[in-house]
Structures
1.
Amino acid sequence: MAHPGPIARLIEQFQKLPGIGEKTATRLAYHVLKSAPVLAQGLAEAIRRVKEEVVLCRSCWNLTDADPCAICRDDRRDPLQICVVEEPPDLLAIERTGKFRGHFHVLHGALSPLDGIGPDDLHFGELLDRLEKLGKKCEVIVATNLNADGEATALYLARILKPIGYRVTRLAQGIPTGGDLEYVDPLSIAKSLENRREL
Ligand SMILES: [Zn+2]
């Protein structure tokens, strides 16, 4: 027997989410159906608002509900330290350490020749513009992931930025190789920030 139309539609929508198969989608749909109306309304409202209200900060390219974001607006932070990360969750991982008081730049990915991702697909140009405005006293701390793409991105940044006079450093090893920053504990990140090395 088929599910009634509206339930089938909800199952179909849930199944479009990553990691959700037909069984889980069906369980979720029936859970929504059985729950108080406030759950369905809250869910629908939260989904709608995340698309309407979350934007990219035009300075650091982090996700934010106010542009410029709270980090870029914070004038107690050191404007001459720019920590470059791949994705917004990496930025949050570094913020959780409480040890970094500079600014960020989110690339939204890493160089990956195999996947056809080159410098023009990431926010490199905007980083160069920012650095130019800030001057040569800037330190660029490359906190891309410690896997092949992250390393390639770090080397690319060093190759571009060092010849024009910027200091470029890289998180120290100590984060498991292949490690996605997002899942590394704050203490290890804090340590590898502290022991960062010149590139
Ligand atoms: Zn920002």
2.
Amino acid sequence: MTEPRKAIVAGAGIGGLTAAIALQRAGWQVKVFEAAQTLRAGGSGLSVMANAMAALHSIDAHAPVEQAGQVIRQFFFKKQNGDPITSMPIHEIGEQLGHPNINIQRPLLLRALAQQLAPGTLTTGLRCVGYAHRPDGVQVSFEDGSTHQADLLIGADGLNSTIRQQMLGETPTRPSGYIAWLAVTPLNHPLMTEGYVAHYWGRGKRFGLCDVGNGQAYWWGTCNHDNAADAALSVSKQEVLSAYTGWAPEVIAAIEATSESAILKMHARDREPVKQFCDGHVVLLGDAAHPMLPSLGQGAAQAIEDAVVLAGYLARTPDLRGALAQYQAHRHPRVNGIVNAARFMSGIEQAESKLLCWLREWYFRLTPQSSLRKKNVDILSFKPCA
Ligand SMILES: Cc1cc2nc3c(=O)[nH]c(=O)nc-3n(C[C@H](O)[C@H](O)[C@H](O)COP(=O)(O)OP(=O)(O)OC[C@H]3O[C@@H](n4cnc5c(N)ncnc54)[C@H](O)[C@@H]3O)c2cc1C
């Protein structure tokens, strides 16, 4: 009997965990190494859109995620005072595609994925520091001085990836020009019906309010900043309240309901797209390969798609380098297109000029639902390997 092929995954985020599940289900022996002492226990929420749910479904990993999340039922764009601009047919597109769009707390998503790993797969508190090519595989080094051999190393180590740095050299991050606050809080408000999502648009500021189920709301706020990349990341709830003075009552209620310690503040960043995601027996996925601004809610979704497509090619193509080349060719047009689209959308959403904000509002008001549906179907459709 032939020995199972061995993979090492650097990083137990959404992409790394999904890759490990997919490869184990395809018969690989997988070890995941996470630099942090635990899977991210805190943090906020996110949306796992229909394309990601379809990818998870294709490896039968969707059910625990669906159970831990909340299906998005309504999706509104509103003015900062809460007046409606338009609604997005996100729920209808999910029904058309046969997969729901989910809001979920990030720790619950990580847990829903991690629980599907074979026992003993995950080692936490051990940072991967580099790799060396071997004739028949790769040797991976860790910060405690240990090394492990494998047929494949997957760099799923996020925005500041060590594996990417070694593979591609310096590829600076690009600031977004804004900072973001994020939190999950209990919220009882008449507008927060089951599966509610609303994005409120102001000048150079946005606010998102999402039902993540069980009486909890996930909210995020973005605010243009002259020097966003250097803005201090210490959180003051008063600063957030001041940024949204005069906004819709539900926006103020969400911030007021949140304890200061539950609020995260971060810089949103992406990188110039690249076409290379692999080198020998080493491959990148998720934010390590193509970090993007959050405007389209697709960063984690694309990490999940990467993981499933990668495992698909590895399962059907015996030649490992050939499989990685197929993965790279399949993925880079889609993910790089989304990186660019997210940056473009971010410019529109964070617009400050009165004229641009007025045009934005009227563009969305006048665009028919059928057109909004058409624009979103492609991005929300998962394309498995051919
Ligand atoms: C404000 C904001 C809102 C967002 N909202 C959404 C959304 O609604 N929907 C969506 O799809 N996406 C969203 N995203 C994007 C999403 O969060 C990321 O794209 C996603 O987390 C990427 O997953 P990943 O597994 O590639 O990387 P990460 O989640 O960053 O995981 C990387 C892991 O690797 C570990 N690590 C790092 N270095 C090493 C090392 N050297 N060795 C071992 N382990 C290491 C880290 O500790 C971490 O656990 C949002 C992003 C932001 C900033």
